[in-house]
């Protein structure tokens, strides 16, 4: 991936995260340097508690590091406040979470429309409907999340993530709460859409098989990158 | 973001807020909020509309005492154009011309006060006539026909007349056709010394009694819609010349006004308490609502939402819901106001204008202030939910600073209270009371909760678990006990204390309050009248001297109209006042500043002034006042200020002198006493024996006041219903507050194998204990508040009611347990699967 025409979309420099606990300071991430290039798909693997989710949160600007920097599209996230980082994410970054994180009070369709409407998209509804079709949930559009199975909820979440056509997609163990077969189907949907939209993908998983479908693999071990 | 995008996103924020609101409404959580808002608005508007209309009714009553809404007094004949103009402006008008004259019947002559009236008189109030002395009489809408006269009982006794007799007045002869029993406007202006003769205005010229030099008082009576009357007054003012004056009915009767003022206070306090309780309910609902939105907000942040956008998203939901619920509240308030008016329907005059829109505006504004003051702090927390919460559930927004919350609540509270009481002192009182109570309740709650830690020894596992829950969730428990306690306290106050206070008010006008006034008693008749009353009426009357005089100077400064802005004081400037002197203070008077004169001071010139009169004129203790009495100037320092119970029906004076100072001034005496109906004939003998004395029977007016108080106190009870509902709302919200934690915990316990009955017992134990603690606190604070209220505000002696603790604790425990378990029923039946879905 040394193609000079491809620029890093997100980059971390000496990224550290440390929290204070009752038993003293706890280092969660230690000196993480990485860069993720436009268009590539990267898997982050590691044992439970190795700091994967924490790293993803920092890269996406959901959380702030103790030291070090995150550069997203040439912007130092550390120079922005919470709102500034949110503005940067709007329409550029998509998420898929282990626990789906759908708005319980909105229907499947409305959940997909949500990021579009936040961006002031006038054609939110037809757009969202076409995405529902792609994740095979056309006739479930009026159902609320609690009326859908885990796999279906995750497909709605994937459709929502792609609705704004993001440049970068973060997925934190998208199949973690699903059985193998359902997980497989969700992953297929994810990769299919990723291909179609040519999105940069950062995928967290401790499933090595799943990770191997990505272009590149980063391994975390107790807060350190080991590749 | 560029500005176009920003604009469209502001719009979409609103659209999204509405979408969410619709969904959340269906989920049911927000209904409690809407309900609280409806109660707040409905109770304020119904009270507002109602007092508005009753005040109007009182003004109309004042009109009855004048015979019209607006009276023009003149020493010269009323101009034709004035009557024309009144007709033009859609107003009714009538003339009343008064003058002293002499009437003769056979050999006998008698000085009378003639009143010639034109058709339509009286425009307000009732004219009653009859054929027998001292009877009720019947209301009439006519006036004496041409050639006929009506006279009062005094003239009948003085001339030994009977119906049908002929009377000679000036150049005409009249036939006595009826006995005049009640004239609405008898009591105003100069008290007539002579008996009354009423005749038709059309007969006036023929009598040839009105000569350029005669002492005639002309009156033009006007009545109609308030707006038109006001317009007419504006038109008339510049037309007036010397010796002409306008009187309007705005002041009403003092006794009625006092009763209404008191009722207004009760009513606004009642609605204020409902508003506060609704506020508490709103605060709890919104807090819970907000906490359940943390996940949504974290997600929205991930999707790029700005913090302010999130706040707006939820504020818009709240505002819209508040506005809709507020409008529903307005409608409810409008209807219940109509219910209140029905209570008064026989009493309120027909021409009562519809309520103004002000109360509607005030009600809605009150609701919005409460909603924003109590409801928005938790929503401002939402914008600080860290987006990383999507990855770690334990991350929440930092708690909002207590200072911010309390200032917001405090500001909205003081705003509301000041607005309602229109009285800074009372505001501070109520505000201080609320703060003290809250602090006391919090301390009590915390103390009791820490006590429960030591309470868990010998009981079964589920009971122990339930009781331990209370101290384990100390923060939540404090809030719950506090809310439960406040709700129960208000309910206890309403049920147990209210009746005492209201019956005290009802008794404030006892059956033995004076119903007869005697005026114009001459100094040489004092002993004879006192003896007569003692013997024939069985009353110990206290005859008070009365001297007429004008206040001319305060501290050597001339009193002139230009020095006063207050219309009340302006009106009184230059008017003749009734002055009296006394050695002792009347029992219904209280010295509020300075000191009452002692026995050895009685020859010193000293003054005692009624407090309101003093404040109208800016008079303080120590000021030197100068009065013009007959052709003398009398001056004395103010020794004290007095408060007077104007609604006691005792004879009272604004200005009281120490004895000695006025001894030589021309005085007449006045007294009031209670005479049972069976003794009324004694009055006949009294007027026969002392023809110069005027008897004023105020029985009818007192009954009116009694009726008013009676109905107003019913109205207060009615409005308390809102308060009761608001109190129950708070209880409900308090129980709901811990539902989510319970849901989660019981699911966890079930997965660990806890049986339903165990969970049920644990919950029952917890609710029983919470409820009894809250009940205990409620009883204590209700007793304290009742004590302060009765001792400080109502001058009632206070008795501790031990039942309040038993009732409070037992009902509190059972009620809370019942409501809590009913609410938790679904929760017990829930399978632990909720854990997987969360
Ligand atoms: N705010 C925090 N306070 C205390 N400990 C934290 C905090 N955030 C993360 N940790 C700890 O840091 C470690 C890494 O957490 P993280 O969630 O990143 O792991 P993970 O690799 O995503 O694990 P999993 O595969 O189980 O999701 C964990 O031990 C976690 O308990
Ligand atoms: Mg993780």
**What's the mean pLDDT score of chain B?**
81
Query: What distance separates the N and C termini of chain B?
Result: 34 Å
Query: CATH topology of chain A, which one?
Result: Rossmann fold
Largest sheet of chain A: 6 strands, mixed
Number of extended strands of chain A: 10
How confident overall, as mean pLDDT of chain A? 87
Low-confidence stretches of chain B: 1-7, 188-192
Describe this structure in words.
The complex is a heterodimer of chains A (227) and B (838). Chain A is 33% helix and 28% strand. With 227 residues, chain A is of the alpha/beta class. Chain A has one domain: Rossmann fold (3-Layer(aba) Sandwich), CATH 3.40.50.300. Chain A has helices at residues 52-59, 82-89, 108-118, 124-134, 150-163, 180-197, 208-211, and strands at 8-21, 24-37, 41-46, 67-72, 75-76, 93-96, 168-172, 200-204, 216-221, 224-225. The model of chain A has no long low-confidence stretch (mean pLDDT 87). In chain B, a hairpin with a 7-residue loop joins strand 4 and strand 5. Mean pLDDT of chain B is 81; it is low at 1-7 and 188-192. The longest helix of chain B is centred in the C-terminal third of the chain and has 39 residues, at 699-737. The interface between A and B is medium-sized, with 34 and 34 residues. The structure holds adenosine-5'-triphosphate and magnesium ion. Magnesium ion (MG) binds next to helix 1 of chain A.
